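Hey there, shall we discuss this one?
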Amino acid sequence: MLGHNGAILRHTIGEVISVSKQSVYFTIPGLSNKHEVKNIKNGLAKLRGVTSVSINTETDSVAVDYDSTGTNTEDISKHLQKLGFDAHLTENENHIM
């Protein structure tokens, strides 16, 4: 059976499988141009576990979906800082699937 990112999930009948997906939201003041958006998306895509990055330049917000077995909020925040962005955590959501 294939998982969310194409990973193979093995299980036996009656076994419950849970995949921990989380979403984290940041505000980055002054986020305004396509170059910054591309920089953030490409930079975060390199982190193991990141499944999607959505950016709204009108609200200066960044939403990151990730598998918590591959990365975490702190690593994502640090990576944004390393990319040169002053990211402020606004929300963190845990989804159990």
About this structure: Helices lie at 34-45, 73-82. The CA atoms of residues 31 and 60 lie 5 Å apart.
